[in-house]
């Protein structure tokens, strides 16, 4: 059977349909089983289910497959809300009960902490979760003009391909943005450069003062000059749907407002943290959390764990536009925020001034090249907050020594594997205890795992 399957691997449709029982879920939300000594990763399968499957990728030690039929169904299986589930690659876990999704992510965090970092938290924090639909305020949509069908596709990519999914709505996008997908397809089809517009980046901000309508900005990635007719089409679309259209012709530095013109008094993008009386302006291409409701709860949890005090000096590494820095400053502590991107530091300074905060300082630093000497040169801090990108904060953590180690570190992570790696260094080499850890379900129905951990120097 092994030879027959491997010969057929060049054409997945020729691979045989086999059956197995699913043991667990992997980091990508796929069912995991073992057949003939090989690990099989099966899209669309859930733990304890018996399924039939067909492999579409065959390697010596593992295979990747799709479910053909669910023979025995899990009691945690639910009917996906989105009609595009299974085709669109955006949400992989809609078929799993929401509470089970959160529990799965908690197990992944615990497993990574132990198997990668060889650490266990003294306490598991209750998971943070919130709205399950219509939560996504930022996204990057692909665009494809299909000449044979004389139509334009706008949406996320299909599962495991570069093709754009044929979709006209999205259940996790803010409803007002989901409702724009079909109109965008029609509008782009009218453009002369319909085949030279590969991407739309979108951002949604809170309503301006005195308004009930959210601010929606669309950045169109255009690879050719707009004609006068194109400009008329875009302006009419923006007026009809009450959105701002920006354009990007090359790199990020070419992003600029197109319509309404920049010289008009347009409401800017912003989000708030009401608990801390903070407002943050941001540009549509600048990093902010996609789920503002969860962000509010996440910041509250981080402040509870960090417990900043007025007499303390605190560092916020990978501070971005000051999402955590300014709440720390509200406590009265002196806080330094460091970030690798100068434009985010500029925005953080703008937010500090807007909110009347004078006990924060921001600077640009490549934290992926941190050394013991450069860390010590920053001075001694009582506490750290660390919120790195997916690569983690390995060099920063390695730079710790007796002269620069804070008493407490709160680590916010978007990748449990790199958190686990860094936790291993903190606990097994730097003298810290992992007091607590838990998941933050920032991206419901996806396999993405956000988490938070508390370390204390022993």
Describe the structure.
By secondary structure, the chain is of the alpha/beta class. The chain folds into three domains: 2-72, Nucleic acid-binding proteins (OB fold (Dihydrolipoamide Acetyltransferase, E2P), Beta Barrel), CATH 2.40.50; 103-131 and 291-457, Rossmann fold, CATH 3.40.50.150; 138-270, OB fold (Dihydrolipoamide Acetyltransferase, E2P) (Beta Barrel). It has eleven helices and 22 strands. The strands form four sheets. The protein has an eight-stranded mixed sheet with strand order 7-21-22-20-19-16-17-18, with helices on both faces. It has a six-stranded mixed sheet with strand order 1-5-6-4-3-2, with no helix packed on it. Strands 9-8-10-11-12-13 form a six-stranded mixed sheet. The chain is globular and about 65 Å long. The termini are far apart.
Element layout with pairings:
Layout: H1 2-8, E1 18-21, E2 24-25, E3 31-35, E4 38-43, E5 50-58, E6 62-72, H2 98-115, E7 123-124, E8 138-146, E9 151-155, H3 175-178, H4 181-189, E10 199-205, E11 215-221, H5 228-241, E12 244-248, E13 256-259, E14 270-273, E15 278-281, H6 292-306, E16 313-317, H7 325-330, E17 334-339, H8 342-354, E18 360-364, H9 372-377, E19 383-386, H10 394-398, E20 408-413, H11 416-428, E21 432-440, E22 450-457
Parallel strand pairs: 4-6, 7-21, 11-12, 16-17, 16-19, 17-18, 19-20
Antiparallel strand pairs: 1-5, 2-3, 3-4, 5-6, 8-9, 8-10, 10-11, 12-13, 14-15, 20-22, 21-22
């Amino acid at each position: 059977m092994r030879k027959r399957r491997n010969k057929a691997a060049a054409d997945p449709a020729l691979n045989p349909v086999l059956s197995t029982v699913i043991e667990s879920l992997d980091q990508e939300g796929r069912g995991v089983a073992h057949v003939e000594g090989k690990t099989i990763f099966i899209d669309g399968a859930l733990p304890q289910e018996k399924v039939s499957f067909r492999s579409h990728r065959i390697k010596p030690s593992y295979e990747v497959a799709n479910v053909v039929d669910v023979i025995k169904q899990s009691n945690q299986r639910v009917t996906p809300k989105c009609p595009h589930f299974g085709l669109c690659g955006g949400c992989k876990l809609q078929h799993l009960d929401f509470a089970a999704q959160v529990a799965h992510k908690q197990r992944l965090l615990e497993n990574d902490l132990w198997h990668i970092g060889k650490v266990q938290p003294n306490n598991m924090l209750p998971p943070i979760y919130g709205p399950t639909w219509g939560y996504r305020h930022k996204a990057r949509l692909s665009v494809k003009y299909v000449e044979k069908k004389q139509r334009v596709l706008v949406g996320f990519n299909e599962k495991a391909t570069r093709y754009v999914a044929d979709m006209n709505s999205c259940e996790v996008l803010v409803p007002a943005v989901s409702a724009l997908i079909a109109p965008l397809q029609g509008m782009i089809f009218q453009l002369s450069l319909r085949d030279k517009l590969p991407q739309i980046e979108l951002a949604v901000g809170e309503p301006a003062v005195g308004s009930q309508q959210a601010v929606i900005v669309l950045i169109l990635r255009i690879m050719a000059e707009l004609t006068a007719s194109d400009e008329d089409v875009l302006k009419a679309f923006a007026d009809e749907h009450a959105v701002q259209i920006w354009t990007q012709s090359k790199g990020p530095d070419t992003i600029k407002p197109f319509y309404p013109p920049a010289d008009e008094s347009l409401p800017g993008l912003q989000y708030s943290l009401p608990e801390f009386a903070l407002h943050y302006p941001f540009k549509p291409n600048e990093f902010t959390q996609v789920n503002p409701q969860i962000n509010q709860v996440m910041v509250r949890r981080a402040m509870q764990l960090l417990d900043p005090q007025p007499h303390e000096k605190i560092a916020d590494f990978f501070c971005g536009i000051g999402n955590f820095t300014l709440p720390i400053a509200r406590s009265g502590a002196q806080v330094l925020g460091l970030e690798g991107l100068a434009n985010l530091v500029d925005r953080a300074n703008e937010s500090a001034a807007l909110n009347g905060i004078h006990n924060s300082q921001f600077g640009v630093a490549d934290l992926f090249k941190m050394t013991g000497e450069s860390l010590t040169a920053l001075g001694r801090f009582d506490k750290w907050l660390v919120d790195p990108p997916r690569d983690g904060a390995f060099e920063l953590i390695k730079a710790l020594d007796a002269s620069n180690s804070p008493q407490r570190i709160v680590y916010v992570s978007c990748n449990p594997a790199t958190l686990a790696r860094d936790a291993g260094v903190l606990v097994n080499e730097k003298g810290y205890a992992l007091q607590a850890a838990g998941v933050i379900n920032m991206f419901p129905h996806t396999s993405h795992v956000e988490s938070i951990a508390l370390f204390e120097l022993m």
